[in-house]
Amino acid sequence: MGIGIAPAKTILFGEHAVVYGEPGIAIPLWEITTTASFQPFRDSDRKRDFHIHSPMIGLDADFSDIPVNLPLKKLIIRLMNLLHLTEPPAKILQIESTIPIASGLGSGAACSVAVIRAFFDEYHSNFDDAEISAIAFEIEKSYHGSPSGLDNTTISFGKPVYFQKGKGFEILKLDSKLNLIVADTGIQSVTSAVVQDVRNHYEQNQAFIRAIGIIAEKARPAVEKGDVQEIGQLMNENHDYLKKINVSCYELDLAVETARKHGAIGAKLTGAGRGGNFIALAEKPSDMIEIKKSLVHIGAKIIL
Ligand code: MEV
C-alpha cells in the first residue's frame, strides 16, 4: 500500500514579502499532517475505477468525474505522466488531514506532497525531496499564480528553512525548540486573493515589503540560537508591517494583542492573513497555559 505523509508549515517571518524575493523563515509542524494512502477496494464496493476520497475537502469521486481544473486532478495527471502510467490505479486514494484548510498552514501544499509521496511509494520510485518540492510547486501555481515556493519547500523537506525566491534556501538547525502556540481565528481566507491584493498595491507596499525582508534577515541568527526575546520582538514588528500592507484583520489583531497581554513575547499572523492562523511565542512552556486560555476566551481555536 503506497503511503505519503506531509506536515503543515508555519511562517515565522516574511510572508508576502517572500513573493517579491525577500527572505522568509518557515518551520514544519509535524504535529499536524496530511496522509495519502492507496487502499484496495473492499468486496462490498461496487466501484472499480480509480477513486479519490478526501473528507477534508468534501471530495468523494471517481477520478474520471473530477474536473480537470482541480489542482489535485492536475497533480495526478502529472504523476501518471512522470511514472509512465497509461491507466490510473484501480484503487482508492484516501486523503486524511488534520491541517485546517485555507488558514495559512499550507494545507494545499501538504496535500500535494502527501499525494506525490503516496504515488512514488506505490510505484516504488525514488524521487528526492527537491524533486517532490518542484512538482508541488507546479501545483501551487494553479492555486495562486505567483507563489514564492516557501510552502512547498518547507513541507517537502520537512525542516526549518531560510528561503529566498530565485536564490534557493538553506535548512536551519535550531538550537532549541520554540514554545510556539498556533491558533486559528476560524476565518477561512483564500491565499490567491490576498496575494493578488498585495500585488495590486505594490507601489505603496514596496517599502514595507523591504522592511519585512530586513526583519527576516535579522531573525535568522535569533531563530538559530533560540534567542526568544529577539524572535518575539521581531515577530511583533513583522505583524505591524503585515498590518501596513493590509493583510491583517480585526480578529487577527485582537488575537495577537490578547496573546501579548497574557504573556506572549511576540505574536503575529502566519500565512496569507485576512483570517486563518496566528502564532504566539512564550518564553517558557508554563507561560503557554495562560496565553492559550486567553485565546480560547476570545474564540480562537488552539491548533498547537
Ligand atoms: C502563503 O502561505 C505565504 C505567502 O507568502 C504566499 C507565498 O509565499 O507564496 C502569502
Structural summary, described in words:
It is a single chain. This protein is an alpha+beta fold and 304 residues long. It folds into 2 domains: 3-170, Ribosomal Protein S5, domain 2 (2-Layer Sandwich), CATH 3.30.230; 175-302, Alpha-Beta Plaits. It is built from 9 helices and 11 strands. Strands 1, 2, 3, 4, 5, 6 and 7 form a 7-stranded mixed sheet that branches. It is globular. The relative contact order is 0.17. (R)-mevalonate is lined by residues 15-16, 18-19, 104, 147-148, 150-151, 191, 195, 271-272.
Structural class: alpha+beta
Q: How many helical stretches?
A: 9
Radius of gyration: 20 Å
Count of individual domains: 2
CATH-level-2 architecture of the largest domain: 2-Layer Sandwich
Assign the CATH class of the largest domain: Alpha Beta
| Rough outline | globular
C-alpha termini separation: 30 Å
CATH-defined fold name of the largest domain: Ribosomal Protein S5, domain 2
Are there runs of 5+ residues with pLDDT below 50, and where?
Answer: none
- H-E order: EEEEHEHHHEEEHHHHEEHE
> How much of the sequence is in beta strands?
15-25%
Draw up the topology in text:
Layout: E1 3-13, E2 23-39, E3 51-54, E4 59-62, H1 71-82, E5 92-97, H2 107-122, H3 129-143, H4 150-157, E6 161-164, E7 168-171, E8 179-184, H5 191-200, H6 202-225, H7 228-244, H8 250-261, E9 266-269, E10 277-282, H9 287-297, E11 301-302
Parallel strand pairs: 3-5
Antiparallel strand pairs: 1-2, 2-5, 2-6, 3-4, 6-7, 8-10, 8-11, 9-10
The structure holds (R)-mevalonate (MEV).
